[in-house]
Write a structure and sequence with these properties.
The chain is α/β, with parallel strands linked by helices. The protein has ten helices and 13 strands. It has helices at 10-19, 52-57, 126-139, 155-168, 185-191, 208-216, 268-272, 274-280, 297-303, 309-353, and strands at 25-33, 36-41, 44-50, 70-75, 80-86, 92-96, 104-109, 113-119, 142-148, 174-176, 197-201, 240-244, 250-253.
Length: 355
Amino acid sequence: MLPEDLGYNDKLEEFRKENYPDSFEIGRVIAEHKERYIIKTTQGEFEAEITGNMRFTAKSREDFPAVGDWVALTPYESDFAIIHKIFPRYSIIKRQAIGQFGEIQIIATNIDYAFLVQAVDRDFNINRLERYLTICNSAKVSPIIVLSKIDLINEQQVSDVMENIKLRIKNIPVVAISNESQDGYDELKKIIEKGKTYCMLGSSGVGKSTLLNNLSGKNLMRTDSISQSANRGKHVTSHRELIILDNGGILIDNPGMREVGIADSSGGLEITFDMIVSLSQHCKFKDCTHTNETGCSVLEALEKGEIDKASYENYLKMEREKAHFESTIAERRKRDKEFGKIMKNYKKDMKKNKF
């Protein structure tokens, strides 16, 4: 298999020539299992670990490999290798790590497009779609909304759902599919380009694994039925994997995400809610919170019905999450800096006491 089939391009090759000698093998991380990685190269697949130096110098989760990364590695056995370096990423899809304030969870890297998958019968939630959009916009990844399980509702209901999306979310492609009848799959396959990398974002049970199986024409992922008692899909995929489709597209399958915490540091909210952000430029006060201030252009537009109330409330909620996340990171950095000073002074004292 040629590296181009995995998404390798001229920019990556230029970086390789400038930074790494030919003695290194170049490969892409296609699966991750608790700091053990499966790397695909022109020589085949390797199970790999990072060097001790990479582990020692890592400051955050972003310093470790993730599915989608290009890495420089040295094979040591027929099926084992050591990862030395991670190539620069052109996109990182990430969210707040569940239960770990200020920590980031990387979903996938070097993604071109994201399929935002929601089932129209039970999972459909525009607020959650806006969350996924914010994650994509922050990562500079192009989103495509995929409505699954349309066979479970009638045509008019499908039309109403699509209309509701277009009223709140502008200029984003929307494709409605049925995993049973295969309706919509021809349209979806036309979107997928050779050499481009796609990932799937959505809750458990929305049909992501079935979608992957149908796109690949193979039974790559196990699928489970919906729990009747909880009306919830079971977690089938517990890790991330990269799969190459017959038409040359590259698809990354992700675990279902019940919680989508915002870790936005690149203007994702501003792009997703561009109308609200644009209106905020005309508020009377620069620090306007758009909640109760006099002269707030956002509240005026809300009263006139120019912006959607649910979208406005969703924006405020995510803005609060973003502010809390950023303040948590700032606090942790401050603590780390103070701890660093304590250690530095401790080492100085130890050195003095030796003489």
